[in-house]
Amino acid sequence: MAQTIAALSTAPGGAIGIVRISGEQAEEYLSALFTPIGKCPLTPRMLTYGTLTVHGQVIDRPMAVFFPAPATYTGEPMAEIHCHGSSAVLEEALYALFELGARQAQPGEFTRRAFLNGKLDLFAAEAVNDLVCAQSVQAAALATAQLGGHISTEFSKMREKLVSMCAQFLAVIDYPDEEIEDLPLSEMHQTLDEMRDRLATLCDSYQRGRALREGLPCVIVGRPNAGKSTLLNALLGYDRAIVTNIAGTTRDTVEETLRLGGLILRLQDTAGLRETDDPVEQIGVCRAKDAVTLAKETGVVLAVFDGSQPLSEDDRLVIAQVRDAKRAVAVVNKSDLLMQMDLQELTDSFVQVVRLSAKQREGLDILTDTLTDLTGIRDLPQDGGLITNLRQAEILSHTRENLEQACRQLKAGFAPDAIVYEIEQAIESLGRVTGAYVQEDIVDYIFSNFCVGK
Ligand code: GDP
Questions:
Q1: What is the pLDDT of residue 265?
Q2: pTM of the predicted structure, to 2 decimals
Q3: Which atom of ligand 1 is nearest to the CA of 304?
Q4: Rounded distance, CA 309 to CA 345, Å?
Q5: Are residues 16 and 85 in contact, defined by beta-carbon separation less than 8 angstroms?
C-alpha cells in the first residue's frame, strides 16, 4: 500500500494555505490534529470549522474536509486543512503530519496517484498541469476542456477501432483459408483515412496550442526611429523601452510578456535593422536578426514603418528580411503626422497592413484584433482538441504516419501482416499519449514538471 503523502498545495504568502493529504491514513492523521468546534462532527465532503492542535498547542482555527475513497482526486482517501496563511502554522501542520507517518509529496504526486488509480489518463494529467500554469483565460479554458475527457475518449475509441481491425487481419493470418477479400476493406479504408485526417488536424494544431500555452514570440523590427520602442511601450501600457529621436538608441533586444485578450505575446523590441560601423550596434543588429529568424518561423513579426516619411532603403531591407515570415504585420506608424509613404510596396509584401500612432496610442485595438485573428486563438475547439505539448505532438505525428502507411498498403493490396504491423504501431502510439502504454521514466519526467501539492 502506498504511504500517505502530504504537501502544501498553495503558494506561500496567501491569506489562506491549504495542506493536502492523500492515502489510507488521511482521515486518521486529520483527526489527530483537527477537532471540530461545536456540534458539527467531521462529515465526509463537508468543510468543517475547528481547531488545529500540534504538540498540545492550538495553533490555528482552520476549516478542514475529508474525502472518502474512491470518489476523490487521487482515488485514495484524502483530506485538506485550510489554514490561515502563516508559513509558521503551515510548516508546523505539515511537520506534525510527517511525525504521524505521512511523507512529503513529490512534485505532481497527487496527480500521479490519480493517473495510477485510473482517475485520469496521461493526456488529462498533462492538462491539469497546463491549467495550473495557464497564463490566459483561453489557455485555462482549453486545459479545462481537455480535462473533460473528450479527446481522451476520442483516442480510446480510435484504439478500440484499430484493435478490432487488427483482430480481423490476424484472423486472416491465423486462418489462411479465409480470404482477405472477405474483410470489409472499403470500410477499413475509410476508418483509417478519417483517423489519419483527424490526427493531422491535431498535429497541425500544435503551433497554436503552444502559442496559447507558452505565448507567441513577437518581434518588433524596423529601421531606427520608425517608432518600435514607442509601440512596445504603447502595447505594454508603460514605458519599458527608452524612446528618443536619436537613431540607434535601442542597442539590445528588450523582451516583455504581454497579455492581449487571450493572447500571450513574448514581445521583443530589437535594435533597428540597418547597416552600421558601430561595433556595439552591430551586436544588437545581429541579435535582432536572430530574434527575427525565430519569430518568422514560430511567431509574429511586427514590421514598423514611419508613415510620415517615404519608404527608405533601410525600410526595404526590413521588408526583404521579413518577407518569408509565417505571420507578419506591417505597422505604418505616426498616423498622427502627414502621410508621406506610398503604401503600395507594403501592401504588395504584407497581407496585413495596420496604420496607427504609437505615440498617440491610436489604432492599437486594430493591431490587437489583427494579431488575434492571425494567431487563430479566437476560435478554440470547444472539445479541447488542440495539442499543447511536444510529447503529444510527436507521438501523434508518428501515429499519423503509421496510419498513412497502413492506408497505402491496404490500397496496394499488401499482405495482412504488413498492415497489422503499422496498425499495431499506431495502437501503441495512441496508448503512449493516454498513458495506456508508457514507460516509467516518461511518467517520472512528466510529473516532475508539476508543482508540489498538485
Ligand atoms: P525606434 O528607434 O524605432 O525604437 O523609435 P522610437 O520609438 O525611439 O521613436 C523615435 C521617435 O519617433 C521618437 O521621437 C518618438 O517620440 C517618435 N514617435 C514614435 N511613434 C510616433 C508616433 O506615432 N507619432 C509621432 N508623431 N512620433 C512618434
A1: 85
A2: 0.74
A3: 3
A4: 14
A5: yes
